[in-house]
Structure formats: structure tokens, C-alpha cells
Amino acid sequence: MSALLALSASIVSAHALAQSVQYASGKGIFDTKCAVCHQAGGKGQDGLAPPLTQLPGRYAGDAAGRRQLGLTVLNGMFGAITIKDKTYNFKMPSFASASDEELASVLNYVVFDLNAKHDKAKPFTAAEIKTLRAAPMDGAQVRENRAALIKSLGL
Ligand code: HEC
Hints:
Layout: H1 2-19, H2 24-38, H3 55-59, H4 63-75, E1 81-83, E2 86-88, H5 100-114, H6 126-133, H7 139-153
Antiparallel strand pairs: 1-2
Helix pairs in contact: 2-5, 4-6, 4-7, 5-6
Bound molecules: heme C.
Domain Cytochrome c: 21-114
Keywords: Heme, Iron, Metal-binding, Signal
Signal peptide: 1-18
């Protein structure tokens, strides 16, 4: 009986955690535009779209990493990538049609709500996205840029 009580208490606290979202509007955008590929909570889909629960948090504390996150949502990304021995090779579309505010807010949801570690990162601002929007690149370049970043951060 006490085991059952302990179990139900942990279910209740997991539920409370799931509801305490810092970036609710970012979550709304994520659930509408991103979850179809990355799945709810950013857990990813094998062979299709990578999980977003570890690397974005690591990128966000670094200037080049922040730039990479912004470039990915603005321009999309194309070409195979490998995360933890799993390869993903599908096309991430560009979300340049979303506003700077929306993109900052969805990145904040990904970094701060979906990643346990975020290396003391500051929240994304619309101004940060606006600067990156001024210099579009193609999805293959975004992937090359990612490869260089992964190397320089030692990830
Ligand atoms: C049509 C499917 C699809 C949708 C929709 C999509 N993505 Fe992606 N995303 C991908 C794929 C595929 C990749 C990996 C691209 C590659 O293999 O080059 C990716 C990569 C990423 C990465 C880079 C991860 C890393 O480790 O560098 C981020 C960040 C990301 N997506 C965020 C988002 C966000 C935020 C949204 C919604 C605004 C979104 N994605 C919508 C398919 C999608």
C-alpha cells in the first residue's frame, strides 16, 4: 500500500513538473510548428528529426552556439547529422516566416524548458534573431556551421 502511495505521489510530482513551463508561448509555437517532427517535449524521432533535449542547452551558453540555434530556425538545416550514434537525415524547414519574437520565444522554450542544462545562458531576444535574419544562408551551410560548432565545443 505504501509503495502505491509513493508511486502516486511521484506521478503527481512528475505531472506538476510537466506543467511548470517557463516559456508558455514558446511551447505553443513548438507544439504547433515543431512537434510534428521533433515530437512533444523535443524527444525526437529516430531517423527523422533529432532530439532537442541536450545539445541546444549546451549551445546556448556560447556566442557561436546561440548563432547556430538562430540560424537553424531561420534557415532550416539539410544533410545528415549524428547525435549519440544515431543518424538523422531529413530536411529541417526554414521558419523565416515567423516573427523575431516568435523565434526567440520558441528557442527559449527549447533551451530553458526542454534542456536540463543550459550553461548559464541568457534568454534569446528578438533583436538577436533580427541580426541573424539579415544574413540568410542555405540549409547545407547551416549544417557545415553546426559541424564546426560541435568540434569547437567538444560535443
Ligand atoms: C519537417 C520536420 C521538422 C520540423 C517541422 C522542425 N524541424 Fe528542427 N530539425 C529537423 C531535422 C531533420 C533536423 C536535422 C537536420 C539535418 O539533419 O541536417 C532538425 C534540426 C533542428 C535543430 C538542430 C539540433 C542540433 O543538434 O543542432 C534545432 C535546434 C531544431 N531543429 C529546432 C526546431 C524548431 C524550434 C522547430 C519549430 C520552429 C523545428 N525544429 C521544426 C526537422 C524538423
